[in-house]
């Protein structure tokens, strides 16, 4: 009995150790295809001990690659822009297209930089930021227009053809990730004076590349292998092992109920979050698009208010989904190419944060 147990235990541990060793050595060389073959969700790991912000490049290479790959999807607003009725404001980033130091409708990832003191030493930390691709996305559940979906890979996408730009997705996101551009979107064809605020934009993990078994553009471009992608459970195990080996910390494992984007760092994320907030305060930066890193932040959907709101929106989201299907049928556009494998063609946004 003991021999059998020991043999099974040995084989199990040997397999796990071999797998982690291979992942560490190869950086998950062909992870997307492997996960696809096994029908698994993907995860990404961002190693802050390896990211240096590409000091010899005018723009971090991951950011440049993201912009180049997605530029055909960037919004081209119709001007003059109208206010968000009944509010007297509008969000317009179209004259700031070259801005790469925060999230905008024209910049879906950026690398934040802060200085953090830890154990008596000063650390310069570079933090690539983009959508966390949550396990239970609040944005998806609370969108009244069914414009957000979660793909079989785990990537969360916004359908820019049906988004009304209400910005609820940004309001309920702990990191305020999606960013809005006015003067584009379906509302212009339905009620340009009374409805909608434009379209929300964010990273979709390069779903088009994942659909053909390729890595996202940012991961392909990173020269230091600070970004890694692979089967979700393997990425989770790798993050924990690396953090344990360096005496460091993991972020994204618990936040918002769990995400498919994990960070590891040699300094506590509480200090990184504090440093971001302090830097924003010192610069009087109140615009959206530079998220903090709140630790162990709860998922709004698990609160009483979130559950109530989700239940309240469900009938409207169902009606919106039916309307969108009818719209696409009339338009003769059954596939827009941005959501190849929708797992939960459910719900999305409508709300606000700040102005650019």
TrEMBL record:
This is 4Fe-4S ferredoxin iron-sulfur binding domain-containing protein. Residues 1-34 form the signal peptide. GO terms for molecular function: 4 iron, 4 sulfur cluster binding; metal ion binding. It comes from Desulfitobacterium hafniense (strain DSM 10664 / DCB-2). Residues 329-356 are annotated as: Disordered. PROSITE patterns: 4FE4S_FER_2 (PS51379), TAT (PS51318). One of its GO terms (cellular component) is cell envelope. It is found in: Cell envelope.
């Amino acid at each position: 009995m003991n021999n059998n147990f020991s043999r099974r235990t040995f084989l199990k541990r040997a397999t796990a150790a071999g797998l982690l060793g291979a992942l560490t050595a190869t950086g998950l060389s062909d992870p997307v295809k492997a996960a696809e073959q096994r029908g698994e969700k993907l995860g990404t790991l961002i190693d802050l001990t390896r990211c240096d912000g590409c000091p010899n490049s005018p723009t971090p290479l991951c950011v440049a690659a993201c912009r180049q790959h997605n530029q055909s999807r960037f919004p081209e607003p119709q001007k003059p822009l109208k206010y968000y009725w009944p509010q007297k404001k509008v969000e317009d980033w179209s004259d700031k297209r070259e801005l790469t130091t925060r999230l905008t409708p024209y910049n879906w990832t950026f690398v934040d930089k802060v200085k953090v003191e830890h154990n008596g030493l000063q650390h310069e930390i570079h933090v690539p930021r983009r959508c966390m691709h949550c396990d239970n996305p609040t944005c998806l559940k609370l969108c009244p227009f069914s414009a957000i979906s979660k793909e079989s890979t785990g990537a969360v996408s916004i359908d820019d053809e049906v988004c009304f730009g209400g910005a609820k997705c940004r309001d309920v996101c702990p990191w305020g990730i999606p960013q809005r551009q006015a003067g584009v979107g379906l509302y212009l064809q339905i009620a340009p004076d009374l409805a909608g605020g434009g379209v929300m934009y964010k990273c979709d993990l390069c779903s088009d590349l994942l659909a053909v078994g390729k890595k996202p553009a940012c991961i392909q471009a990173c020269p230091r292998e600070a970004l890694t992608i692979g089967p979700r459970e393997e990425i989770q195990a790798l993050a924990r092992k690396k953090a344990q080996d360096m005496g460091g910390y993991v972020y994204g494992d618990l936040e918002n109920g769990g995400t498919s984007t994990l960070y590891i760092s040699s300094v506590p994320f509480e200090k990184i979050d504090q440093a971001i907030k302090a830097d924003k305060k010192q610069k009087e930066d109140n615009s959206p698009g530079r998220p903090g890193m709140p630790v162990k932040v709860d998922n709004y959907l698990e609160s009483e208010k979130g559950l109530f709101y989700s239940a309240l929106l469900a009938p409207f989201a169902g009606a919106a989904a039916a309307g969108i299907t009818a719209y696409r049928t009339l338009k003769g556009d059954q596939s827009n190419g941005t959501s190849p494998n929708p797992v939960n063609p459910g719900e999305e946004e409508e709300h606000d944060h700040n102005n650019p």
